[in-house]
Each structure stands twice: as structure tokens, then as C-alpha cells.
TrEMBL record:
Keywords: Membrane, Transmembrane, Transmembrane helix. This is Transmembrane protein. It comes from Geopseudomonas aromaticivorans. The chain crosses the membrane at residues 12-30, 36-56, 68-90, 96-117.
Amino acid sequence: MSTASPRLGHYALGGIAACILLNLPVRTLLKVGGPFATLLVAALVAFSLALVFRWRTGRRPYPVERRVLVGLYALGLGLLYAGLLALMYIKEEPGLPGQLLFAAHYLAYPLLAWIALAPERDAS
């Protein structure tokens, strides 16, 4: 356990890399697709991120750390998703339903990270 402040950018980059690396085998080898694949990968990464954070620091993230970590994670994934959306526009402009589905796929990642990194609730 380290008493130093955790490097939240490293956790965010690790989460982003895990998203990329997990999506490939889930979608190609396991032949899982669509929203289920997104939710599966997003949940695995989010709860792994929370587990690694707790293992390395010996505690859950403080509220400010949670906000910063999820913000960096969402920003990094958002940049990748923006690039993917730009490629979709180059090929053919997606309609509104396609854009909404695309946004839902993206939002699953930071939302599940936010839930996984939640502070413990008092038992009282």
C-alpha cells in the first residue's frame, strides 16, 4: 500500500487500454456483439479499475479522485469515440438513431466506472 497520491492519469490510461484490448477478443473470438458486448466490456473494465485502485491504495477513491479519474477516463474514451464517429461520417452520415446508439455505447463506459468507483455506504 502506498501513502502517496495515486496517479489517476495512469489508472485512466490503463482503463482505456483495457477497453481496447478487451473489445477485440470479446467481439471477434467470442462473437459477442452489440449492446451486450459493450456492457460486458464496460463492466469488466470498470470493476477491474475499482479493484486495482483499492488493491494498490488500500482504499476506495475519495470523491475528488473519483470525479477526476472518471473524467479522465471519459475524456480519453471520448476522443477515441470522436475519431470513430468522424470515420463513420466519412463513410456515410449516420442518422439520428445511429448517433443515439453510438452515444449510448460510449456513455456505458464512464457510467459503469462511476458506479464501480462509488464510495462505500454506511451500514447504518
